[in-house]
Here is the input.
Amino acid sequence: MAPPSAPTDNSEHRVAVDISVSCQSWQSELPAVRDICRKAIREAIHTAARLSPTVQAEVSLVLSDDDFMQGLNRQYRKIDRPTNVLAFPGDDLGDTLDDLPEGISVAAPVLLGDVIVAFETAVSEARADNKSLADHLSHLVVHGTLHLMGFDHENDADAQEMESLETKVLAALGVGNPYNEGS
Here is the structure.
């Protein structure tokens, strides 16, 4: 795994991103796939601002295919079909949230968790919505990363909060609002 790298802004967040490309179609279709994903993860963590600025975080991303995703979806969600993105939270954020007492820092990196994205499903959705694969991948990675940070869309209020945050993160990445019809 690569060492944590400094963020592009002035915050102190350090985010290590470990990317595994198990489906080579990602690399063939998007040669800059690793950079796209790193930027999306780091921007989501920075924008969500749920970590104390001194916390070091780790995220693992797997760029998979539909077969792999279907197996995970069947095993963990009892749904026997692929899905676009799954997120498996790691460490409990607990004291690493913004309310960490002043002067206290967490020494060990916080494992936010794993995000898995399925190639064929992502390509199909991007085409159906007339979006670039790069933009759709950024959205899926941001979505998964926000799940790792405790955001969800189980009810209307939570969904509105998460979608608003996703839109803000994606705008910072130069990606249009994925929730606007025809965008």
